[in-house]
Amino acid sequence: MAAFPERVKNQAPLIHNITNYVTVNDCANILLACGGSPIMADDLQEAEEITSLCAGLNINIGTLNQRTIPAMLAAGKKANACGHPVLLDPVGAGASRLRTETAEKLLKEVRFTAIRGNISEIKALALGMGTTRGVDADSMDAVTDDTLDAAAAFTGAFARKTGAVVAVTGAVDMVTDGSDMYVIRNGHPMMRKVTGTGCMLSAMITAYLAANPGCPLDAVAAAVCAMGICGERAFSRLNPEEGNAAYRNHIIDAVYHMDGKTLEKGAEFRKYRLEADGTMALSEGEQP
Asked: What residue ranges of the chain have pLDDT lower than 70?
Protein backbone atom coordinates (compact mmCIF):
# COMPACT_ATOMS: atom_id res chain seq x y z
CA MET A 1 0.00 0.00 0.00
CA ALA A 2 2.93 2.33 0.65
CA ALA A 3 3.63 2.92 -3.05
CA PHE A 4 0.28 4.47 -3.90
CA PRO A 5 0.60 7.94 -2.30
CA GLU A 6 4.24 8.16 -3.33
CA ARG A 7 3.32 7.67 -7.00
CA VAL A 8 0.81 10.53 -6.77
CA LYS A 9 3.49 12.84 -5.39
CA ASN A 10 6.05 11.73 -7.96
CA GLN A 11 3.73 12.05 -10.95
CA ALA A 12 1.59 15.05 -9.85
CA PRO A 13 -1.35 14.07 -12.09
CA LEU A 14 -3.53 16.88 -13.43
CA ILE A 15 -7.14 16.14 -12.51
CA HIS A 16 -10.13 17.72 -14.23
CA ASN A 17 -12.97 18.31 -11.79
CA ILE A 18 -16.53 19.08 -12.79
CA THR A 19 -17.71 19.37 -9.24
CA ASN A 20 -20.11 21.26 -7.02
CA TYR A 21 -19.58 24.85 -5.96
CA VAL A 22 -20.09 24.06 -2.26
CA THR A 23 -16.78 22.19 -2.02
CA VAL A 24 -14.83 23.14 -5.14
CA ASN A 25 -12.12 24.98 -3.17
CA ASP A 26 -11.65 22.06 -0.79
CA CYS A 27 -11.38 19.64 -3.71
CA ALA A 28 -8.67 21.80 -5.27
CA ASN A 29 -6.76 22.01 -2.00
CA ILE A 30 -6.99 18.29 -1.25
CA LEU A 31 -5.56 17.50 -4.68
CA LEU A 32 -2.67 19.88 -4.09
CA ALA A 33 -2.16 18.40 -0.62
CA CYS A 34 -1.96 14.80 -1.85
CA GLY A 35 0.47 15.74 -4.63
CA GLY A 36 -1.87 16.14 -7.58
CA SER A 37 -2.86 19.22 -9.52
CA PRO A 38 -6.45 20.47 -9.95
CA ILE A 39 -8.25 22.16 -12.80
CA MET A 40 -11.95 23.07 -12.74
CA ALA A 41 -13.74 23.57 -16.06
CA ASP A 42 -17.47 23.00 -16.43
CA ASP A 43 -18.36 24.91 -19.60
CA LEU A 44 -19.30 22.72 -22.56
CA GLN A 45 -17.12 24.79 -24.91
CA GLU A 46 -13.93 23.71 -23.15
CA ALA A 47 -14.82 20.55 -21.21
CA GLU A 48 -13.48 18.11 -23.80
CA GLU A 49 -10.35 20.15 -24.49
CA ILE A 50 -9.46 20.39 -20.81
CA THR A 51 -10.17 16.70 -20.26
CA SER A 52 -7.78 15.74 -23.03
CA LEU A 53 -4.98 17.59 -21.21
CA CYS A 54 -5.57 15.86 -17.89
CA ALA A 55 -4.71 12.47 -16.42
CA GLY A 56 -8.12 11.86 -14.82
CA LEU A 57 -11.67 13.20 -14.56
CA ASN A 58 -13.77 13.64 -11.41
CA ILE A 59 -17.53 14.19 -12.00
CA ASN A 60 -19.55 15.30 -8.97
CA ILE A 61 -23.29 16.04 -9.33
CA GLY A 62 -23.67 17.93 -6.06
CA THR A 63 -24.97 21.19 -7.55
CA LEU A 64 -26.49 20.11 -10.83
CA ASN A 65 -27.81 22.51 -13.44
CA GLN A 66 -28.83 22.27 -17.07
CA ARG A 67 -25.64 24.03 -18.19
CA THR A 68 -23.18 21.59 -16.65
CA ILE A 69 -24.87 18.26 -17.41
CA PRO A 70 -23.89 18.33 -21.13
CA ALA A 71 -20.34 19.24 -20.09
CA MET A 72 -20.20 16.22 -17.77
CA LEU A 73 -21.31 13.91 -20.56
CA ALA A 74 -18.91 15.40 -23.11
CA ALA A 75 -15.96 15.32 -20.72
CA GLY A 76 -16.74 11.75 -19.65
CA LYS A 77 -16.85 10.50 -23.23
CA LYS A 78 -13.63 12.35 -24.06
CA ALA A 79 -11.87 10.82 -21.04
CA ASN A 80 -13.03 7.38 -22.18
CA ALA A 81 -11.63 8.04 -25.65
CA CYS A 82 -8.31 9.14 -24.11
CA GLY A 83 -8.14 6.12 -21.82
CA HIS A 84 -8.19 8.26 -18.67
CA PRO A 85 -9.79 7.12 -15.40
CA VAL A 86 -13.19 8.66 -14.67
CA LEU A 87 -14.90 8.83 -11.28
CA LEU A 88 -18.57 9.50 -10.54
CA ASP A 89 -19.67 10.99 -7.22
CA PRO A 90 -23.51 10.75 -7.35
CA VAL A 91 -24.16 13.32 -4.61
CA GLY A 92 -27.79 13.24 -3.52
CA ALA A 93 -28.87 10.50 -5.94
CA GLY A 94 -32.29 9.39 -4.74
CA ALA A 95 -33.12 12.81 -3.29
CA SER A 96 -34.57 14.26 -6.49
CA ARG A 97 -35.56 13.05 -9.93
CA LEU A 98 -33.00 15.35 -11.60
CA ARG A 99 -30.10 13.94 -9.60
CA THR A 100 -31.13 10.32 -9.96
CA GLU A 101 -31.90 10.53 -13.69
CA THR A 102 -28.69 12.45 -14.39
CA ALA A 103 -26.59 9.87 -12.56
CA GLU A 104 -28.33 7.09 -14.47
CA LYS A 105 -27.73 8.87 -17.79
CA LEU A 106 -24.06 9.31 -16.96
CA LEU A 107 -23.77 5.63 -16.09
CA LYS A 108 -25.40 4.71 -19.39
CA GLU A 109 -23.24 6.93 -21.61
CA VAL A 110 -19.88 7.08 -19.80
CA ARG A 111 -17.65 4.19 -18.71
CA PHE A 112 -16.62 4.90 -15.13
CA THR A 113 -13.47 3.55 -13.50
CA ALA A 114 -14.88 4.19 -10.03
CA ILE A 115 -18.10 5.29 -8.35
CA ARG A 116 -17.95 6.72 -4.82
CA GLY A 117 -20.87 7.65 -2.65
CA ASN A 118 -22.61 7.04 0.64
CA ILE A 119 -24.75 3.95 1.08
CA SER A 120 -28.04 5.67 0.24
CA GLU A 121 -26.67 7.18 -2.98
CA ILE A 122 -25.26 3.86 -4.14
CA LYS A 123 -28.47 2.06 -3.19
CA ALA A 124 -30.49 4.60 -5.20
CA LEU A 125 -28.43 3.79 -8.29
CA ALA A 126 -28.17 0.05 -7.68
CA LEU A 127 -31.81 -0.54 -6.83
CA GLY A 128 -33.51 2.33 -8.62
CA MET A 129 -34.80 3.94 -5.44
CA GLY A 130 -33.46 5.70 -2.39
CA THR A 131 -34.08 7.24 1.00
CA THR A 132 -31.32 9.83 0.77
CA ARG A 133 -31.70 12.62 3.33
CA GLY A 134 -30.58 15.52 1.17
CA VAL A 135 -26.98 14.63 0.36
CA ASP A 136 -26.52 12.55 3.53
CA ALA A 137 -27.04 8.82 3.96
CA ASP A 138 -30.28 7.78 5.61
CA SER A 139 -29.76 6.19 9.02
CA MET A 140 -31.87 3.21 7.94
CA ASP A 141 -29.28 2.41 5.25
CA ALA A 142 -26.24 2.57 7.55
CA VAL A 143 -23.63 -0.15 7.05
CA THR A 144 -22.99 -1.94 10.33
CA ASP A 145 -21.57 -5.31 11.24
CA ASP A 146 -25.14 -6.66 11.19
CA THR A 147 -25.90 -5.34 7.68
CA LEU A 148 -22.42 -5.73 6.17
CA ASP A 149 -23.10 -9.00 4.31
CA ALA A 150 -26.26 -7.70 2.65
CA ALA A 151 -24.60 -4.38 1.75
CA ALA A 152 -21.61 -6.22 0.32
CA ALA A 153 -23.84 -8.42 -1.83
CA PHE A 154 -25.70 -5.59 -3.54
CA THR A 155 -22.58 -3.41 -3.81
CA GLY A 156 -20.70 -6.26 -5.46
CA ALA A 157 -23.57 -6.84 -7.86
CA PHE A 158 -23.62 -3.12 -8.74
CA ALA A 159 -19.87 -3.18 -9.40
CA ARG A 160 -20.26 -6.15 -11.73
CA LYS A 161 -23.16 -4.46 -13.53
CA THR A 162 -21.31 -1.17 -14.08
CA GLY A 163 -17.79 -2.54 -14.53
CA ALA A 164 -16.57 0.10 -12.06
CA VAL A 165 -14.88 -0.09 -8.69
CA VAL A 166 -17.61 0.92 -6.24
CA ALA A 167 -16.66 2.65 -2.98
CA VAL A 168 -19.35 3.00 -0.32
CA THR A 169 -18.07 5.32 2.39
CA GLY A 170 -19.42 5.91 5.87
CA ALA A 171 -18.73 4.59 9.36
CA VAL A 172 -17.62 1.36 7.65
CA ASP A 173 -16.20 1.70 4.14
CA MET A 174 -16.54 -0.90 1.39
CA VAL A 175 -14.52 -0.92 -1.84
CA THR A 176 -15.23 -3.61 -4.43
CA ASP A 177 -14.79 -4.51 -8.08
CA GLY A 178 -17.41 -7.25 -7.83
CA SER A 179 -14.87 -10.00 -7.25
CA ASP A 180 -12.92 -8.75 -4.23
CA MET A 181 -13.86 -6.35 -1.47
CA TYR A 182 -12.00 -4.24 1.04
CA VAL A 183 -13.80 -3.52 4.31
CA ILE A 184 -12.08 -0.46 5.79
CA ARG A 185 -12.46 0.87 9.32
CA ASN A 186 -10.42 4.06 9.28
CA GLY A 187 -11.87 7.52 9.91
CA HIS A 188 -13.47 9.51 12.71
CA PRO A 189 -17.13 10.46 13.42
CA MET A 190 -16.25 14.17 13.31
CA MET A 191 -15.68 13.88 9.57
CA ARG A 192 -19.47 14.07 9.28
CA LYS A 193 -19.32 17.59 10.74
CA VAL A 194 -17.35 18.92 7.77
CA THR A 195 -19.14 19.57 4.49
CA GLY A 196 -17.25 18.01 1.63
CA THR A 197 -15.07 15.27 3.08
CA GLY A 198 -16.70 12.89 0.60
CA CYS A 199 -16.17 15.30 -2.28
CA MET A 200 -12.54 15.74 -1.28
CA LEU A 201 -12.11 11.97 -1.14
CA SER A 202 -13.54 11.58 -4.64
CA ALA A 203 -11.02 14.09 -6.00
CA MET A 204 -8.19 12.30 -4.18
CA ILE A 205 -9.33 8.89 -5.44
CA THR A 206 -9.16 10.21 -9.00
CA ALA A 207 -5.54 11.26 -8.45
CA TYR A 208 -4.71 7.85 -7.00
CA LEU A 209 -6.33 6.16 -10.01
CA ALA A 210 -4.43 8.36 -12.45
CA ALA A 211 -1.07 7.72 -10.78
CA ASN A 212 -1.63 3.99 -10.28
CA PRO A 213 -2.99 2.59 -13.57
CA GLY A 214 -3.73 -1.10 -13.86
CA CYS A 215 -4.84 -1.62 -10.25
CA PRO A 216 -8.02 0.44 -9.76
CA LEU A 217 -9.41 -1.62 -6.86
CA ASP A 218 -6.25 -1.29 -4.83
CA ALA A 219 -5.79 2.39 -5.73
CA VAL A 220 -9.30 3.26 -4.55
CA ALA A 221 -8.85 1.26 -1.34
CA ALA A 222 -5.54 3.01 -0.65
CA ALA A 223 -7.11 6.46 -1.10
CA VAL A 224 -10.05 5.59 1.17
CA CYS A 225 -7.67 4.32 3.86
CA ALA A 226 -5.50 7.42 3.51
CA MET A 227 -8.43 9.80 3.93
CA GLY A 228 -9.68 7.88 6.96
CA ILE A 229 -6.27 7.98 8.60
CA CYS A 230 -6.10 11.73 7.95
CA GLY A 231 -9.47 12.13 9.67
CA GLU A 232 -8.08 10.32 12.72
CA ARG A 233 -4.86 12.30 12.77
CA ALA A 234 -6.71 15.59 12.31
CA PHE A 235 -8.93 14.89 15.33
CA SER A 236 -5.90 14.09 17.48
CA ARG A 237 -4.53 17.60 16.73
CA LEU A 238 -7.64 19.51 17.80
CA ASN A 239 -7.30 21.88 20.74
CA PRO A 240 -10.22 22.21 23.19
CA GLU A 241 -11.16 25.60 21.69
CA GLU A 242 -11.24 24.33 18.11
CA GLY A 243 -14.20 22.93 16.17
CA ASN A 244 -15.12 21.74 12.71
CA ALA A 245 -13.45 24.63 10.85
CA ALA A 246 -10.06 23.84 12.37
CA TYR A 247 -10.74 20.13 11.89
CA ARG A 248 -11.20 20.69 8.14
CA ASN A 249 -7.82 22.43 7.95
CA HIS A 250 -6.17 19.69 9.98
CA ILE A 251 -7.52 17.09 7.52
CA ILE A 252 -5.94 18.93 4.59
CA ASP A 253 -2.67 19.25 6.53
CA ALA A 254 -2.73 15.52 7.31
CA VAL A 255 -3.23 14.70 3.62
CA TYR A 256 -0.28 16.96 2.80
CA HIS A 257 1.92 14.95 5.19
CA MET A 258 0.56 11.52 4.22
CA ASP A 259 3.27 9.19 2.99
CA GLY A 260 3.63 5.52 2.27
CA LYS A 261 4.92 4.62 5.72
CA THR A 262 2.06 6.38 7.48
CA LEU A 263 -0.50 4.74 5.20
CA GLU A 264 1.00 1.29 5.63
CA LYS A 265 1.09 1.61 9.40
CA GLY A 266 -2.35 3.14 9.90
CA ALA A 267 -4.57 1.36 7.37
CA GLU A 268 -7.20 -0.82 9.03
CA PHE A 269 -8.85 -3.14 6.54
CA ARG A 270 -9.66 -6.71 5.69
CA LYS A 271 -9.86 -8.04 2.17
CA TYR A 272 -12.53 -10.52 1.15
CA ARG A 273 -13.39 -12.57 -1.90
CA LEU A 274 -17.01 -12.25 -3.03
CA GLU A 275 -18.52 -15.68 -3.62
CA ALA A 276 -21.13 -16.46 -6.29
CA ASP A 277 -23.89 -16.50 -3.67
CA GLY A 278 -22.97 -12.99 -2.50
CA THR A 279 -21.23 -14.05 0.72
CA MET A 280 -17.72 -12.89 1.67
CA ALA A 281 -14.74 -15.17 2.24
CA LEU A 282 -11.70 -13.69 3.95
CA SER A 283 -8.58 -13.43 1.77
CA GLU A 284 -5.77 -14.00 4.22
CA GLY A 285 -2.50 -12.15 3.88
CA GLU A 286 -3.48 -10.00 0.91
CA GLN A 287 -2.52 -6.34 0.88
CA PRO A 288 -3.43 -3.63 -1.65
From this structure: 129-141, 284-288
